[in-house]
Amino acid sequence: MSRPDHMDVAAYALGVLDAQDTERFEEHLATCWACAAELETMVPVVGLLSDIDGETMSALEHTQTDPALLDRTLVAVRAHRRRSRVRQLLATAAAVVVLGGLTGIGFNTVIDDANPPSVVAEPTLPAPAPPTDSTGGGPTGPGVGGNEAEGDQYDATDPSTGVQTTMFLAQKEFGTRINFSLRKLPGPRTCRLVVIRKNATTEVISTWSVPDEGYGTNTQPQGLELSAATAAKVGDIKQIQVQSVDGNGVASPLVTVGL
Fold it and tell me: Residue 215's closest CA among 123, 152, 117, 118?
């Protein structure tokens, strides 16, 4: 351009720049927020000039109106026709900035995903999960294992370990669903839920880990709530036992529920 880019805002708004200067200024406008903001303030003023139609202009021309003023007005009207083009350009420039901000957010998300925070291992449940039964209604009581309490309730406290449990056993077509909660369970340790049938066979139906603070303790008052299932019918079960398993795989009972 023949003069600094920042000086061409008014000339551009009024449409007095030639084609070459117009193109160069629009390239400058795409990266200069100062000029874009100044141009935006001029748009309403130029818009007012658009209300003057061709007939009015012709009438003015046939009067003793200053010819120079008439020429400037005609130029302003023509500039108004470019207003939609200017607004589109401003919107494009704003979109570029917004996209840049979103890209930064996306980059941070990728970084966070690449370094996920450490979490305590959650209890593992057997697969496949038992189907949901929407017909049965159990006794009143707290929900455990993420499900509403259903079935017969059994409470037990081991006199040696002090571990407490509440279990709800519900008869299902696939076998038995067991919702249970544990309290006074110290950690760290690995635990498992074992079904002992009346025919003396056993089945491990769930395993989980207990963090250092345990569950239902002074350090961690919140108890542990889990849900599991077995193919055994309720009438075939003699006992359900929560066991602690050491590093050598040796299990010892923590609390036992007798049916």
Answer: 123
Six-digit token pair at 193? 């839920």
Which residues in 40-174 belong to E strands, given as ranges? 152-157, 164-172
Secondary element (H or E) of residue 237: strand 237-245
Q: What's the pLDDT tens digit per position in 99-158?
A: 445 444 444 444 444 455 444 444 444 444 444 443 333 333 333 344 457 899 999 999
pTM: 0.45
Gyration radius of the chain's alpha carbons: 39
DSSP string for 192-211 = EEEEEETTS-EEEEEEEEE-
Degrees, nearest 5: CA angle 182-183-185: 95
23, burial (CB in 10 Å: exposed 0-12, middle 13-18, buried 19+): exposed
Answer whether the bond into residue 139 is a cis peptide, omega within 30°: no
> Which residues, in sequence order, are bridge partners of residue 251?
245
Question: What structural domains and CATH numbers belong to the chain?
Answer: 5-114 (no CATH), 152-258 (2.60.40)
